Amino acid sequence: MTQxxxxxxxxxxxxxxxxxxxxxxxxxxxxxEGLVRLEAVxxxxxxxxxxxxxxxxxFGEEALFGQERGYFAEAVTxxxxxxxxxxxxxxxxxxxxxxxxQALSEAYxxxxxxxxxxxxxxxxxxxxxxxxxPLAREEEGKLVLHATHDELAAAVGSVRETVTKVIGELVRExxxxxxxxxxxLKNLEGLKALAQSRG
Amino acid sequence: MTQxxxxxxxxxxxxxxxxxxxxxxxxxxxxxEGLVRLEAVxxxxxxxxxxxxxxxxxFGEEALFGQERGYFAEAVTxxxxxxxxxxxxxxxxxxxxxxxxQALSEAYxxxxxxxxxxxxxxxxxxxxxxxxxPLAREEEGKLVLHATHDELAAAVGSVRETVTKVIGELVRExxxxxxxxxxxLKNLEGLKALAQSRG
Lengths: 199, 199
Hints:
The structure is a homodimer.
Chain A: E1 7-10, E2 15-17, E3 29-33, E4 36-41, E5 47-53, E6 58-59, H1 62-65, E7 72-75, E8 79-83, H2 90-116, H3 119-130, E9 136-139, E10 142-146, H4 149-156, H5 160-172, E11 176-179, E12 182-185, H6 188-196
Antiparallel strand pairs in A: 1-8, 2-7, 3-6, 3-8, 4-5, 4-7, 9-10, 10-12, 11-12
Helix pairs in contact in A: 3-6, 4-5
């Protein structure tokens, strides 16, 4: 038996969900293609990335449970989503629970980093995480990350000015090379060591 | 139809789960009575509270999905747990997913606080969170929290020395009164305002 799947598409930069109380028509989404970023934005407009959702991952789970949504969901790339039915099948519930357990364990690692690591070490961890997304591409045998200093600030929970300083340090120390909206990851092993130490 | 539930009990301070790879006999637990604390401990022995699990809540979800466990689970009070079967019924899966979604949204709030708030404001938020657990008791019409400065440090992601300084500030400013292993919450409204501002 084949069931029609309800899909929706978004262009890069489009907002998929806004913060607030989920309405009766709100759904849980599964990412089929592309990358979705969940982010909190404070009164001063500073963004903080909470979760990157890749194909197979879910978001909008608060619609299922009547919880308040504290984030914007934004399409980072071209995105195709499946809008799940209001009543999830057991295998969908299980996949959702697994995704949430994984996201929770990543959030706890972020909390540990924020509580104990210096910004430079957290930045190394963030660069490596972004390197696993469609924002990173192999160019002439090198891994190049397409991200602005604003996006990096959102990823580590800081502001652009401070991020620019730390990126400068990482460049001087030979970990990365930096161009306009691009970061070339020169020394992956070094970045991994940095990401694991306290600083 | 009545099914026998498999329950286990722990005394205050007992470790229920250790960090590491879940084994084939590991289970997901539902708290029936008491309070469980999940915490990460770094090489220097500093603890960081990741989640407080109250009756109705779950932990040990990594056993279900073969994920690495990054935390210790410890009984804070006398605790009675239900060890869930390896195959969860749909209503248990749904309750687990709901608990994880709630825990994730709390973890994101923690990340926002850590990225943007001063320690004093985070401490106000932590005191209010602990006030919702069995660690808080009404004593002669006042809300008294039974927690050491080490436990408060673990709750906010700091160390005891710094916490002692911040607690001193909150005492001087009339928000709390502090005794041996006890904090009396004098000004709940003031603490709420502090917890919501950036500092």
